[in-house]
Amino acid sequence: LTSGLESAWNKLKGEEVLTKENIVEPMRDIRRALLEADVSLPVVRRFVQSVSDQAVGVGLIRGVKPDQQLVKIVHDELVKLMGGEVSEMVFAKSAPTVILLAGLQGVGKTTVCAKLANYLKKQGKSCMLIAGDVYRPAAIDQLVILGEQVGVPVYTEGTDVKPSEIARKGLSEAKKKNIDVVIVDTAGRLQIDKGMMDELKDVKRILNPTEVLLVVDAMTGQEAAALVTTFNLEIGITGAILTKLDGDSRGGAALSVKEVSGKPIKLVGRGERMEDLEPFYPNRMAGRILGMGDVLSFVEKAQEVMRQEDAEELQKKIMSANFDFNDFLKQTRAVAKMGSMTRVIGMIPGMAKVTPAQVREAEKNLKMMEAMIEEMTPEEREKPELLAESPERRKRVAQASGKTEQQVSQLVAQLFQMRVRMKNLMGVMEGGSIPSLSN
Ligand code: GDP
Ligand code: MG
């Protein structure tokens, strides 16, 4: 996926802007890369459409090249595709919280039971496992061994007891012991069959679980999304756990589960160790798929600084000659941010080169101004005239902020100078004199 996408960015090298014409080739690459990553066709179609629409309409950000801009759009769309925010585990209002695990054979259910207990234990929750896979004695032994390994009790019965019966007894045992979270292992089959679904429905009815999580193997690619959909329709699930992500280089399973099934991936397994379970972060996953972390953070920073509306709003304010200390602070902060940005990435064209010493000086000045402005009343901030007219007010601000009266006077004068300069700049000449400070 990553290499397929790379050729998409490469096709934009040397372009000035993104246009309907020049994104055709890159979009074809993106489409191909997603299909090769085993993302289903309808999902790919919607994805490509959405990215194309955004790419053509996107405003230019100073210093950001079209290929970088496209990387960012694709990234954000990937995040959206995977559900946007991280989807947290839900806990019952009154303990115990019951988590029922389901899934086909060999996907990693039993392993996930112990991993999840280990994970929740670290958050200070007491856990208990229930061995609900009665078809193979080895499955019970496996859970007991893993439970011991992570230091969590395992409730077992013989292989002749019905899973729903084990679930019922296990749950009442957990209540007696004041356990916070009960995690129930179940039997899988090689393929979906009615017996398995009926058994799961029985167990679910008895337990009334807070979470029903389908464990899916990432290696199954787009089949993962189909499985989540089927299980959701059959038994009703709250989310999925994607295992063996360490062995899957394509990432297709993670991409389509949410879009196809409507259910989020909550956790991912990335290895056989007990520690190898973590929340599913769509933005990290997107970042990993793209493998272009530096480009992403660059575009994000540039967007932040250049945010058009902010600049325009400030400009309007300046033109209206009502430029006050609040705006002053905003503008000074924006400038300081630009300074530290150029230091970090040093690649915004059209900006004067700023030396590290200048940046440090600007930041020091900003701190000093902030200290003084913070001590002004809201009224004084909006009407700097109040400070210009009253030495007492300036004295108060100086004392409260630990600066000299002269420093405060300078700040006030600076603001009026700025007003005048702005007005001159805009060609609005009326009333542009600098009031002298009365003593
Ligand atoms: P179950 O049949 O669904 O209960 O699956 P198991 O928990 O018994 O796991 C089947 C195999 O997959 C075991 O050998 C596990 O060690 C392995 N396994 C489980 N999760 C992961 C994972 O995230 N990564 C890797 N590489 N192997 C895993
Ligand atoms: Mg098992």
Report the end-to-end length measured between terminal Cα atoms. 70 Å
Sheet/helix structural class: alpha/beta
Tell me what the CATH architecture of the largest domain is. Answer: 3-Layer(aba) Sandwich
Write the element-wise H/E pattern from the N-terminal end onward. Answer: HHHHEHEHEHEHEHEHEEHHHHHHHHH
Small molecules bound in the structure, each named once: guanosine-5'-diphosphate, magnesium ion
User: Which CATH first-tier class of the largest domain would you pick?
Assistant: Alpha Beta
Overall average residue pLDDT: 83
Strand content: 5-15%
Shape: elongated
Largest sheet strand order: 3-2-4-1-5-6-7-8
Number of individual domains: 3
Low-pLDDT stretches are 341-352, 428-435
The CATH topology label of the largest domain is Rossmann fold
Helix amount, in percent? 55-70%
* Tally of strands: 8
What's the CATH superfamily of the largest domain, by name?
P-loop containing nucleotide triphosphate hydrolases
Task: Name its key features.
439 residues; 57% helix; 434 Repressor (Amino-terminal Domain); Rossmann fold; binds magnesium ion; eight-stranded mixed β-sheet; binds guanosine-5'-diphosphate; elongated; alpha/beta; Four Helix Bundle (Hemerythrin (Met), subunit A); single chain
